[in-house]
């Protein structure tokens, strides 16, 4: 009976601050084709998605769900190939590329019904983790349905060179908006300006307080801000609140500046909610999972945009299964540009 040596990263310790390798244990076991029961498939993982929500789920408090259980395989999206399948009527077959949610393990057995078939002859399979995956889903529906962008409006995107931010910036531009991209290095702002084509950029590390950031926002967008797509929170968000227009829409997609400690002990920033009152603005949180059922709609709209180069994207691909925990840590130090992926 064919067997495979399998490695798994087990999440074993809850981080208080930044997550790193010390919160994981590498374990080995053996997985056998005989374990593939009817309706299931054995997958060989190839590309792992590295996402900030992994750290959110390590908070000791409930979020949109209970915390990630300790002593289990770190969950996460994976692009994999089918090694064996136990269902003669399935349209899937051995060798097919699929998107699964089987986490940080080299091999995994899962329900066939959980898999999404990918076609590597049409577009790189890694796009299923980024520009045509979950980050795209929240970028697209979050901006269009909570932000309601109109031609000529000014949109500020924080975390703009990341997996979500780079897509938000480009969809806003497709809708005729002026985009200001905020990111954490000159390399990232150059990418935003020269490749993504945003109108204005800010390297927030050169404006390290809410006051300085507000001055810079006022300088480059004297017309004010109509939509703020927030990926980071903290003082950048405080500064944006100071400069919003009447009927501004603030979309809370993420608060990464708060994840490494602030989820359990919130940082108290300035309380600028009175600005929301004066400007009759709205603040809405958005979650990718609320749009899971609308993936077909997303793909039919965005796949041609990506194939035709209307939407460009960057990926940072780290090699080595052993690198997974350190790759997660990289997100919190801005070491990725675009979607962060680990390849076996
Ligand atoms: N609501 C949802 O369903 C949903 C779905 C996906 C993602 N998100 C959220 O969207 C945000 C972006 O996610 P992503 O997958 O696209 O990650 P990403 O932007 O590709 O990577 C994270 C980036 O965050 C920035 N960052 C890290 N610490 C920061 C800090 N203290 N202050 C400001 N920026 C910081 C870094 O870029 P710099 O070099 O620019 O600092 C880093 O590269 C996250 O907050 C995430 O939780 C939400």
Q: How do you describe this structure in short?
A:
The chain is α/β, with parallel strands linked by helices.
Any descriptors?
344 residues, alpha/beta, Quinone Oxidoreductase, Chain A, domain 1, Rossmann fold, 6-stranded parallel beta sheet, globular, binds NADP nicotinamide-adenine-dinucleotide phosphate
Description:
With 344 residues, this protein is of the alpha/beta class. The chain has two domains: 3-130 and 314-343, Alpha-Beta Complex (Quinone Oxidoreductase, Chain A, domain 1), CATH 3.90.180; 134-289, 3-Layer(aba) Sandwich (Rossmann fold), CATH 3.40.50.720. It contains nine helices and 16 strands. Strands 3, 5, 6, 7, 8, 15 and 16 form a seven-stranded mixed β-sheet that branches. It has a six-stranded parallel β-sheet with strand order 11-10-9-12-13-14, with helices on both faces. A three-stranded antiparallel β-sheet has the order 2-1-4, with no helix packed on it. Helix 5 packs across helix 6 (234-241). The protein is globular, with a radius of gyration of 21 Å. The protein starts with a strand and ends with a strand. The model has no long low-confidence stretch (mean pLDDT 97). The structure holds NADP nicotinamide-adenine-dinucleotide phosphate (NAP). The site of NADP nicotinamide-adenine-dinucleotide phosphate has 31 residues, from helix 2 and helix 3.
């Amino acid at each position: 009976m064919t067997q495979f040596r399998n490695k798994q990263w087990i999440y074993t310790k809850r981080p208080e601050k930044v997550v790193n390798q010390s919160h994981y244990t590498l374990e080995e076991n053996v997985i056998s084709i005989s374990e593939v029961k009817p309706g299931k498939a054995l997958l060989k993982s190839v590309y792992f998605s590295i996402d900030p929500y992994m750290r959110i789920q390590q908070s000791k408090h409930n979020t949109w769900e209970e915390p990630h259980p300790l002593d289990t395989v770190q969950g996460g999206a994976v692009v994999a190939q089918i090694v064996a399948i136990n269902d003669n009527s399935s349209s899937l077959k051995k060798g097919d590329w699929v998107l699964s949610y089987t986490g940080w393990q080299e091999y995994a057995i899962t329900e066939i019904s959980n898999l999404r078939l990918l076609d590597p002859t049409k577009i790189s399979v890694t796009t299923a983790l980024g520009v045509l995956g979950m980050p795209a889903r929240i970028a697209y529906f979050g901006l269009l349905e909570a932000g309601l962008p109109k031609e000529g409006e000014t949109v500020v995107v924080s975390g703009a060179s990341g997996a979500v931010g780079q897509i938000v910036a480009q969809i806003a531009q497709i809708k005729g908006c002026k985009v200001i991209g905020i990111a954490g290095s000159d390399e990232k702002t150059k990418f935003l300006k020269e490749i993504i084509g945003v109108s204005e950029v800010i390297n927030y590390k050169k404006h390290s307080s809410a006051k300085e950031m507000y001055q810079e926002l006022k300088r480059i967008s004297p017309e004010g801000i109509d939509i703020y797509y927030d990926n980071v929170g903290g003082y950048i968000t405080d500064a944006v609140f100071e400069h919003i227009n009447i009927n501004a829409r603030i979309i809370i997609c993420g608060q990464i500046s708060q994840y490494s400690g602030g989820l359990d002990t919130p940082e108290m920033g300035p309380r600028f909610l009175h600005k929301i009152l004066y400007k009759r603005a709205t603040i809405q949180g958005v979650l990718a999972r609320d749009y899971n059922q609308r993936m077909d709609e997303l793909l039919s709209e965005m796949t041609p945009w990506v194939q035709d180069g209307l939407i460009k994207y960057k990926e940072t691909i780290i090699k080595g299964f052993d690198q997974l925990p350190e790759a997660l840590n990289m997100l919190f130090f801005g070491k990725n540009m675009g979607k962060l992926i680990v390849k076996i």
